[in-house]
Amino acid sequence: MFDVDDVVDAEGASIRSDPTGLGWELLVGMRVTEEGVLHRDSITIDYTVDDEAYSVTIPYQVTICTGPEFEVDGSCPVPGLDG
After folding, report:
1. CB burial class (10 A; 0-12, 13-18, 19+) of residue 68?
2. Which residues are 44's β-sheet partners?
3. Are strands 52-66 and 36-49 parallel, antiparallel or unpaired?
């Protein structure tokens, strides 16, 4: 069950070991801070376990359009796709 009190900023976040051994589920949210088009193709997570550094890049695509020009017709251009 998702608990809004568990939400933290990603940068600098720390999580404790999972006592159940089942692992963790990562939910990534985005906060819109200015008008325009935001597009991402991946997310990279840098982390350490027992003082050993790791990095994983997870491919995904998301495009967010915000502002008056997008509210007129509802269009939101996705880079690399012909509209």
Report:
1. exposed
2. 57
3. antiparallel
Q: Which pTM value belongs to this model?
A: 0.62
Q: Which amino acid belongs to residue 12?
A: G
Q: How many CB atoms lie within 10 A of CB 60?
A: 9
Smallest CA-to-CA distance from 8 within 24, 19, 23 is with 24
pLDDT values of the chain reduced to their tens digit, one per residue, 83 residues: 667 777 778 778 877 777 888 887 777 788 888 998 888 899 898 888 889 999 999 998 888 888 888 877 778 877 776 54
Nearest to 16 by CA among 47, 53, 38: 47
Q: In angstroms, rounded to a whole number, what is the distance separating the alpha carbons of residues 67 and 33?
A: 11
